[in-house]
Amino acid sequence: MEMANKQRKVLRHLKFTRLCTWLLSFFAILPSRQSFNYGEALSKSLLYFESQRSGRLPYNQRVVWRYHSGLTDGLEQGVDLVGGYYDAGDNVKFGLPMAFTITMLSWSVIEYSEQISGAGEYEHALEAIKWGTDYFIKAHTHPHVLWAEVGDGDTDHYCWQRPEDMTTSRHAYKVDENNPGSDIAGETAAAMAAASIVFRKTNPHYSHLLLHHAEQLFEFGDKYRGKYDESVKVAKGHYTSVSGYMDELLLILPIPFSFLNSFDNLNFFILSLQLLAGKSHRKHQHILNEYRSRAEYYLCACLNKNNVTNVQRTPGGLLYIRQWNNMQYVSTAAFLLTTYSDHLQASNQRLQCDQGTLDPSDIFKFAKSQVDYILGYNPMGMSYLVGYGAKYPARVHHRGASIESYKEQKDFIGCMQGYDIGYSRQGPNPNVLTGALVGGPDMKDQFRDERENYMQTEACTYNTATLVGVFAKLHWLEKDYLSANPSLFAYRR
Ligand SMILES: *[C@@H]1O[C@H](CO)[C@@H](O)[C@H](O)[C@H]1NC(C)=O
């Protein structure tokens, strides 16, 4: 109980200091050269998750070109695996990136619930999370069994079909005691634990259920150690577990399970960097310190402030890691820079890098520059968020979007037929994949809007998931500041 009081105090303090950050950082970003409608970007980003839905679509589905699909997923193995999300431009349900997507969406809602509510998008954000967690609950059929994937990249990529027409293998793959997958178990546990915080107030029963699954999954991942791509061989080459399973286990290591029952404390675990400031866990302090120094090294690298290793930037100023789906790194960095700047501001700290010390507002300003690049402030004058702005990718590498909607054209389109009808289509996709963040431009800011150019024109759920909170924060800043200073409307237009 004493702990809960402390938490409330800390939270109150956080809220006040954050208000100051917002005001301060708004002054810092005022001279921006182009202003964007972040509220619209936020609304669109959440629509994207509806396009990626698998399973039976609900009555309130807003993306109307999609229809029910994958209704027999899991049937072959006698489990109900209907639902969840298609990962990218294909029709495979990959559990690991799906869990990461839900973790990041939940984290965004935890951090920026007020801002998301303020934009009128809170319900939509919760629906996006629940579509994933409902599926994880189904996929976790036994304390030590987690269904990790439905379909496989090789047979799926051989065909070009709308999800509504799929004739590809829907074989499901699992991890269990004999075929462990600590990474996927850990990441799924993290996603469910984070989502349990999200639903604590609006749906306490569901929140407890998620926590229960998270505990079991964590225990399973911890006890039966192994990498999931060793167990689920079809994942290899698509989502190879490069760093092994320690990252995912570490993500949840700092919480003993008795501690999990206190949701406010769990909040701090998810925001494990903030946990450091909270001094809640001396026992794991060394792990957290290690985490912190690695995280700060990474942030300094993004800000070009390390002596040795920094992240490359394009001439237009975009962080550049690699040519295939570079935007995933940009959007994740924008999220981490934003939340970390909030954390520093709230605890009255600055970021120490080799080449100087940075204020929270400097860090946030850089995060904003990355978001503005995404939305159109770039040499191509192109928004990489599909459906946003005047110019955006029209030939997104996406099976469903590139073929007429099933609702308008119900004739079955076969595996190879789709290549003629959709993939090789000269014109734009008939369906706009609104809110998708595509792979993005090359190291010289160049972008070729062609369907076969999957390195640049394919989008993934985890690209967009990390933007939700950042859009909400930016929207909130503008709205709040402008309503307090109406005279600035003239200046800004
Ligand atoms: C980084 O470089 C500066 C200037 O060359 C030097 O003063 C500083 O000690 C270096 N820091 C580290 C951590 O190597």
TrEMBL record:
Family the UniProt entry places it in: Belongs to the glycosyl hydrolase 9 (cellulase E) family.
Hydrolase is among the record's keywords: yes
Top enzyme class: hydrolase
Name used for this protein in its record: Endoglucanase
Source taxon at top rank: Eukaryota
InterPro entries: 6-hairpin_glycosidase_sf (IPR008928), 6hp_glycosidase-like_sf (IPR012341), Glyco_hydro_9 (IPR001701), Glyco_hydro_9_His_AS (IPR018221)
Enzyme active site: H397
Pfam families cross-referenced by the UniProt entry: Glyco_hydro_9
Domain named Glycoside hydrolase family: residues: 38-250, 269-470
Listed GO MF terms: cellulase activity
Alphabetical list of Gene3D superfamilies matching this protein: 1.50.10.10
Recorded catalytic activity of this chain's protein: Endohydrolysis of (1->4)-beta-D-glucosidic linkages in cellulose, lichenin and cereal beta-D-glucans
Gene source species: Populus euphratica (Euphrates poplar)
A GO biological process held by the record: cellulose catabolic process
UniProt keyword Hydrolase present: yes
EC number(s) stated in the UniProt entry for this protein: 3.2.1.4
Keywords recorded for this protein, A-Z: Carbohydrate metabolism, Cellulose degradation, Glycosidase, Hydrolase, Polysaccharide degradation
